[in-house]
Design goal:
By secondary structure, this protein is mainly alpha-helical. The chain folds into two domains: 30 residues, no CATH class; 218 residues, no CATH class. It contains ten helices and no strands. The chain is elongated. The two termini are 26 Å apart. The relative contact order is 0.15.
């Protein structure tokens, strides 16, 4: 898990819980009927909206968003330049011995295509398809959490209406007003927390991870095509440096 995620989670949940404690205790904000309406309703609506296979994979997608780390692009550039130099000196077949040193399946597939003597057009088509499929998978995962983020406040509103109806029907019984109002207010609270502190941040993190990984793969593809074309290592480095921001290049 990256530092920003840890700090953000501690700040968001920590400050909210602290304010609860100061205001009278966390127990005031725990209500089983409200949780059932919002959590159960949101998950149920998600199952209606998405196939079961996608919903089951939601936790895996969330783990990917929080714990997956994209490889350092500067290290990837260094490796591609080394491979380019070796290919020019010893031929592309010499790269076969380097495959076991690569921990990225996409790069392994690309280098293997070069070693196998595939045309650059075929290599580009195959690897671009891989990148397109990566984007599609990540978009699918982000869409799940974006949809759940929309459902959660709506279920909170439904819970609020249920609580108000229960309260109005029992106005002659003062003891029932408090529990009904708790359901009415806490469902809105739960829905807002789930949408804004869980689902939407995970969606945003997934989009960022997808963008970073796709960019790294595009850079890797550029390097592989350069190696296949027999480009000079200096030219390969210049091509790949274009994928870095000016600030990242200045650190070299």
């Amino acid at each position: 898990m990256d530092l920003a995620t840890i700090i953000g989670a501690v700040m968001a949940f920590g400050l909210i819980i602290t304010s609860m404690i100061i205001g009278g205790g966390v127990g005031l904000f725990i209500d089983a009927p409200s949780a059932l309406i919002v959590i159960g309703g949101t998950l149920g609506a998600g199952m209606i909206n998405f196939p079961m296979s996608q919903m089951k994979g939601a936790l895996k997608v969330a783990k990917h968003a929080l714990f997956f780390k994209v490889s350092d692009p500067k290290e990837r550039i260094k490796m591609m330049v080394e491979f380019s130099g070796k290919a020019r000196r010893e031929g592309v077949l010499s790269l076969e011995s380097e495959l076991e040193k690569i921990d990225d399946k996409f790069m392994v597939a690309g280098v293997q295509l070069v070693v196998d003597g595939q045309e650059t057009e075929a290599i580009e088509d195959i690897l671009n398809t891989e990148i397109d499929n990566l984007r599609a998978r990540h978009k699918e995962g982000a869409d799940i959490f974006g949809t759940l983020a929309a459902f959660a406040p709506a279920l909170g509103l439904i819970g609020t209406l249920i609580g108000l109806v229960q309260m109005l029907q029992n106005m002659d019984d003062p003891s029932s007003i408090g529990p009904s109002m708790a359901v009415a207010l806490l469902t809105t609270f739960y829905g807002a927390v789930m949408a804004n502190l869980i689902f939407t941040p995970i969606q945003g993190k997934l989009k960022k991870r997808s963008s970073d990984e796709a960019t790294l793969r595009e850079m890797t593809l550029e390097g592989i095509l350069s190696i296949a074309s027999g480009d000079n290592p200096r030219l390969v480095e210049q091509k790949l440096q274009a994928y870095l921001s000016p600030s990242e290049r200045s650190k070299e």
